[in-house]
Here is the input.
Amino acid sequence: MVLILQSKTYMGFTALVYPSFSRGHDKFVGLLQTATQEYQQGRDLLEAIRQKDQKTASTLIQAGATVNQQDSAGRTPLMLAESQQDEKLAQSLVQAKADLGIRDFQGNTARMQAAQQGHLAMVAKLDQLAKDEKEKQERSEALVDAVGKSDLVRMKKLIEEGVDINFRNPLAQTPLMLAALRGDCTALAFLCEHGAKVNARDQDGKTALIMASEGDHLEAVACLLQQKAEINAHSSDSFCNALMVAASKGNLSVLNYLLEHGAEVGRVTKDGRAALTLAAQGGHAEVIEPLIKYGANSGAACWGGKTALAIAAENGHLAVLEALVKCGAKLSVHQGNGDTALMVAAKGNQRLAVEWLIEQGASVSAVNRRGESALMFAAKSGHVAVLEALLKQGASVDVAKKAAGPR
Here is the structure.
C-alpha cells in the first residue's frame, strides 16, 4: 500500500493522478484519496507513540486512525506501545481493532516481543486483551445469530450483558443492517429501541434503508423511516439511494412509499443516472408513471447525455417506451450528441423499438449534429432488419447505400 500510494513515474505522477485524467473514475480517485489519508494518519499515530505523545495518540485513535499501520521495520502502534510498557495505550489500541497477530519484519508479534524483552506484565496484559477480544467476538457472533433467528429474548440478554449493538462484521454491516437485509421488522424495531444507529453505513456506504429497499421489504422500509432513517441517504461508492435502488429493481410498492414520504426524484448517481434513468435501463415500466408524477423529468439528459426514452430504446424495452410516451416524453427530443431515440434504437439493432417509435410518429429523416440519420446508423452497422423497417417507412435508399459504403 505504501509503495503504491507514494511511488511516482518519471514525470512525477502518483497512482492518484491517473484516474483524474479520465471521466467516470471518481470512485477510484475517492478510494485512493481515502487510502492516502488513512496511511498518513497511521504514520502520524506511529510518530506520536514514538514521541510518547499520549494526547495526540489518543486523539488519533478516537478519530479512527489506522491502528495496524506498520513502519519501515514492520512495527505496529501496538508493538511500540508494548516496547514502552504502556498497558493503557495497548488496551486502547486493541479496543480500536489493533491486530494482535500482526508480525514485524523479523516475524515477531507484540506478545512475542514482550516475552523476549522480559516484559512479563505486558505479556499478561496482552494475553488478557486477546482473551477479552475473543469473548467479545463470540458474543457479537451470538447476537448476529439471535438477529438471524429473530430471537428477541436472546438479543435482549446479550445486549444487557454489554454486547455492542452497533458492532460491525467484516463488511462493516451492523446487526440492524442484517435485519434490514432479511426484512425482519420485529428485529429492526427491537434493535432501534435499544440504541442501534439507524443511519450507520457499511463499507460501501449503504444504510439499512437502502438494503431494505433493495430487498423489496416494504414493512422494513416503513419501520426504518419511522425510526428517522435518512430517506435520501446515498451510498459512497455510487451515490445510489433507496429510491434509486427501488427504481432499478422495479420494486413498485417500496418506490411508491418512498415517494409518498418525501424521497427526492431529482438526485443522480455519480455517473449521472437518476431514478427514472435506472428504471428505463432495467426495463421496469411499472415505476415510470409514479416517478414522473412526483416530478421526474422525462426529457432530462442524464447518463452519457441520454434521456430515459433513449435508454429504453437502446435496450428495446417497449413497455418502458410506451409508459414514457404516455406520460409526455417527446419523441423528437435530441440527446447530448444530437441523436434521437429512433437513432439510438437503430444503432442498437432494436427492430421492434424502431417500428414502435415510427408508429408513434418518430421522424425517419431527422439527423443529428453530424448529419447522421437512423437509416445511416442501421446501414453502417449492418442491421438489415432495422434497415428494412426504416426503408419501408420511406427512408432514402440513396442515403442507405452511401452510409453502407462500397461493396
About this structure: Residues 170-263 form a domain with the Serine Threonine Protein Phosphatase 5, Tetratricopeptide repeat fold (CATH 1.25.40.20). The chain has four domains: 2-129, 170-263, 265-328, 331-407. The chain has a mean pLDDT of 89. The radius of gyration is 29 Å.
